[in-house]
């Protein structure tokens, strides 16, 4: 019987020695009997996301973990930021990163971020989401002034310039086609932006802001156009029926592009208060009807970005406790636990440090790693790149066909 | 004085923890003082055949070990299966995988395997091996219904379709050209198959089978045409006079394509009863007149495919004992011992697990691996791919030219 595959991605798992933890990493400092038992019954090593010395985002890293080479399919931040904001992108969609900005009466951008504090951004985004000239325009607000614009329609091209002048004191730029095929798209975007200006200028939200002395959010500055890539379906690539369980839209967006079945678990919040036990249980239950499940747990990354090593240690302990449920699967499932990148609490940003990884299943080789952390896994001498993870899972589940005779 | 190179490939060496060996691999369980001494005086590490997570055949792996990239030179299983059956293929030969099958009176394939039990396949293969229209047709029987057909001649192309209908109840297909250059080959094969039908239908072997109520082996179904690749001669590639000692025709076939001198040792059977001591001695003696010798010892793979971990341990002990002869070479030879892939006894099939590897010679660096097995070599952190082996041997023998100034 071929085994099934279960891949846990603990977002931002890797860290650096932290003075608040007596020079240990949050993973080292965590009480983690289940992670240690899993690695003791299998292989422990270190994984560089995508390639050595790269500081990866979650998008490029998850693409690579699923076996899609980001160098080939990562078509710019636009489409992935749009997915991250919850726009369910479809292959061929054109996406821009966007800012709400302030345009003064003379048409000059006086504030590229419209004062940053824009609680009205959600209702403004809805007002400037509509269909026009056969294309659908979808705007979704992000944190502060940030937003994304997705354009869905026929014959669209990402080869257009930014409307964002990239500095204050200048007028928004006309969007220009960068090649012959992009003229239609450029015209369409320029006409859309004209209509957006009318809508935003006359919106009650902006009148209200101005009456309070706040800068109006009356311009949508666009930059970094990119096309949503068409990924080879996961089922076609691996002959696996795959599913994805994640609390954050960026990862479900990537799962959607790969053709993974998107699992929902009501307690999976994508925050540190997520229902760890329930999420792991839901993933295990999904293996009844799927061959492969990828689970993203966002909490360690949040604690890293917050610069809170004690919180990061604590969420790792909760994850460890939840992972105890995987032991009974050993005869029928190959389990892999790793991170998508490091988010050291000291820097509060992603780093290029490799992340620990373990593979565990019955009957496989062990390599004498007894503790799952950045130091012990490094000493094992078992090193891989994120692109090696799917082939490793495939071969450990005896699913690979022989190359040769 | 430049050292000579001696490469031992223990076929299917790698394994997984086996319950019959108290959770050790056959290599771990074997008494192996010589392998341990060799690795203690040099470098021990792990090698993935071709690339990580691939499940390799012996053909793709040996090509890679010799420095030929299978992605470039592996032209399909046909030519390599033909070599495996003992047809000494030449570059440009077209080879098919073939089945003896049963064609009923109405021209329909009633049994794609002619009942599997075909003791007459050898004499039938000889009868349908002949020259025709300027081309030579060579058929060699394999196990049960299996066989290979090689066509040697001018202007041949592998771009032709199968005659095998791939299911019972259908007539054999006409072989069709898949591009403009393949018409001659398709015509030739179709005419050959017509003649084969006449020969097989009227053969005493088949009349005898039918009189015994057995299905006639009166059709040769062809599939998977491939061209025998032209490899850059080993001598040209490395400026080495190389030789190959192997008990199985697949490996001598590859050695032949690489232009290696094919060594014969009467006791080398390609089976578990091979003369291990004599084979190692013959390889050492060959170094008097050659710079490089590759030795394939098939026995561990056979034990793996048989699912017999005790036998695998025992043959490894015999190999270890024979390798004791290499110690006196240390000042003049770089010795490498590895496998071509793993064949775990538990699965009885090749797996993608990496294999241990050692390099040993006087004066080289050591990396503190003291035991040659899957666990200790993994912990060394010295990781390579099979394509790295020849460059490592070349550099350890001080034969490589400087890259740069």
Determine the number of helices of chain A (DSSP H or I, runs of at least 4 residues).
15
CATH topology of the largest domain in chain A: Alkaline Phosphatase, subunit A
Estimate the mean pLDDT confidence of chain A: 95
Main beta sheet of chain A: 8 strands, mixed
Order of secondary-structure elements of chain A: EHHEHHHEEHEEEHHEHEHEHEHHEEHEH
Task: State the secondary-structure class of chain A.
Answer: alpha/beta
User: Spans of chain A of 5+ residues with little confidence (pLDDT < 50)?
Assistant: none
Percent helix among the residues of chain A? 25-40%
CA(first)-CA(last) distance of chain A: 22 Å
**In total, how many domains does the architecture of chain A comprise?**
2
What is the subunit organization of this protein? homodimer
* Rg for CA atoms of chain A: 23 Å
CATH superfamily of the largest domain in chain A: Alkaline Phosphatase, subunit A
Largest interface: A-B, 26 and 37 residues
Structure notes:
By secondary structure, the first copy, chain A, is α/β, with parallel strands linked by helices. Chain A contains 15 helices and 14 strands. Chain A is globular, with a radius of gyration of 23 Å. The two termini of chain A are 22 Å apart. The model of chain A has no long low-confidence stretch (mean pLDDT 95). Chain A binds chain B through residues 363-368, 379-384, 388, 390-392, 394-396, 398, 400-405, and chain B through 16-17, 25, 46, 50, 52-61, 70, 74, 77, 80-81, 84, 250, 346-347, 349-353, 374-375, 378-383.
Protein traits:
homodimer; 405 residues; alpha/beta; Alkaline Phosphatase, subunit A; 2 domains; 8-stranded mixed sheet; 6-stranded antiparallel sheet; 15 helices; 31% helix; globular
